[in-house]
Amino acid sequence: MAPRTITPFGPQHPVLPEPIQLKLTLEDEKVVDVMPAIGYGHRGIEKACELNEYPKNIYLCERICGICSCIHGITYCEVVESLWPMDIPPRAKYLRTIFSEMSRTHSHLLWLGLLADAFGFESMFMQYWRIREKVLDLLELTAGHRVTQSVSIIGGVRRDIDADMKKHCIEVLKDVRKEVEALSNVLVNDYTVKARTIGKGVLSYDQAIALGCCGPHLRASGVKEDCRMQGYLAYGDLSFEPVVASGGDSYSRAAVRIGETIQAIDLQLEALGKMPEGEIAAKVKGNPPANEATMRVEQPRGEVFYYAKGNGTRNLERLRVRTPTYANIPSLLVMLPGCEMADVPIIVLSIDPCISCTER
Amino acid sequence: MIDKLKEISKDQLLAEVKKYADSKAKFVTGSCNDLGDRLEVTYFFNASPGMDMSALRFTVGKGEEVPSMTGIYLTAVLIENEMKELFGLKVKDLAIDFGGHMMLAQDSPVLPMLKSEDQKAAAQKGGN
Amino acid sequence: MGIIATSRLKSPWIMHFDNSSCNGCDIEVLACLTPLYDIERFGIVNMGNPKHTDVLVVTGPVNRRTARVLKNLYDQIADPKMVIAVGTCSISGGVFHNCYNVLGGVDKVIPVDVYIPGCAARPEAIIDGVVMALQKLAKLQGVAL
């Protein structure tokens, strides 16, 4: 047996924009054991949510994670609304759907760029991020900011999409769809990309369920499970079908995310076409009653779970947020042992880790 | 209201969790809440594949020991460590024990998620 | 002074460190490096090694665990060095001011030269901030930018 060494991977590592540490036990170049050390991004948001008033928490929840911020805000509003429970106007539901899918498009493009960067394909990284800027421009035009939109409020949304914006969005989205398809063709068919990703970090169907994975990571192992199947917001009215792959490796995860990027654009186009006229926010009076509620929403990285407990005052009694990466990190304990040190960055990246989400 | 919530005692926990594991359900997460002199723990499961969720709930006194379900669901290791660290829930037989420093640093506040006196007073006073 | 001081201004190397930010500013810092904003036209290159670095770009509020890491990184950077705090929470703690594990702004731990407000700070503002840091560095070294 070769001698064993323990190598720290992170917290400062070029492939990870965020701080997380993996302690890898190596036998020569082969990983035999892994232990994640987290906590570099822990702020204590759940506690601060109990101290703030209801409307202020929207801004705090959005900053649990800056990449999926829009959906965090929407989920928080949804869970607080279901404490009453109250209904929001149909147009607000459609607008929330459109903003969610827009942020999914930008997040997946971001990840595809980072994946290309992880195996040294820098020009593709730049191309994906160039396309992503167009989506960010749309978000800025419609929701008001590139990254943290704070567009959702309790009872509805803050900004409407008027006819001019709609026309512009449809034009740009069609253009983005063409570009993503052309570029992703390269990613899916390239020999080097295949060699670096096929068979790396394999997770079987049963393992994925036993480890409680979620999101594209779970669907790449063949499990047809997506929160949007519940039909929350406007998804019930749209033609939505989860994107599933069966390989369970890093290549399948990339394929699922490419499929979802295209699908997200299609959903936006469909929602823009079907959006009903009307109010964009309902009037909200008083504090939510003493009640409990849960909400599950599909984020770019997977399922986010919010549990809220109100006590009738202007503060929450308890807010619990389970973010997708929190569920996906344990799968690294299974995927990494047996791989080579040089493949660790790709496998870690393939779960699309979001550390500030995980640690809140 | 949480749908399909089942109230159990902590001694029934492992048997109930085993049932979920046998039916190939997915562990979603857990949540802990400070009720004053007791802690309330809720675990959520999802019947995979699908979106059907159910929950188990029990309460324990502060300082009481709770069995760990990491022997059945390894993925619960993060949430159980977190509850141990932030609420002081005494989980025994953890598969991986981070020793109270998974999230918190050496000089962080101790058991920060427990309710402070100010918070309790504000909650009793009711709405404004 | 001569060529070293001039070169430092014409091609400053930056290192990005994420304290415990929400990622919003981090992806904007990364966006600066990509084709639309292309910070590389100022000769700015992103580095992973503190010993290669002239400018430290810090995002996010300092929390109790990263305070030590940040101090450590700062001490490793060779003089003259510049520190840029990107985003409101790296200035004062911002939206995270009442979170129990957050100490506050970056200047609680290390001296900061340029503050870039915004939540998240826009790429234009980040580029502007880097140029301001260079002006300060030029003054410090007594050379023209």
Description:
The complex is a heterotrimer of chains A (360), B (128) and C (145). Chain A has 360 residues and is α+β, with helices and mostly antiparallel strands. Chain A is built from 14 helices and eight strands. Chain A has a three-stranded antiparallel β-sheet with strand order 1-2-3, with no helix packed on it. Helices cover 23% and strands 30% of the residues of chain B. Chain B has helices at residues 13-22, 77-86, 117-125, and strands at 5-7, 26-34, 38-47, 52-61, 65-67, 90-92. The radius of gyration of chain B is 16 Å and the shape is globular. The model of chain C has no long low-confidence stretch (mean pLDDT 85). Chain C has a five-stranded parallel β-sheet with strand order 2-1-3-5-7. In chain C, strands 4-6 form a two-stranded antiparallel ribbon. In chain C, helix 2 links the parallel strand 1 and strand 2. Chain C has one domain (3-141): Rossmann fold (3-Layer(aba) Sandwich). Chain C has helices at 3-10, 24-32, 66-76, 88-92, 123-141; strands at 13-18, 45-47, 55-59, 62-63, 82-86, 102-104, 114-116. In chain C, helix 2 (24-32) crosses helix 5. The chains are: A alpha+beta (360), B alpha/beta (128), C alpha/beta (145). Chains in contact: A-B, A-C, B-C.
Explain briefly what this protein structure is.
The complex is a heterotrimer of chains A (360), B (128) and C (145). Chain B is of the alpha/beta class.
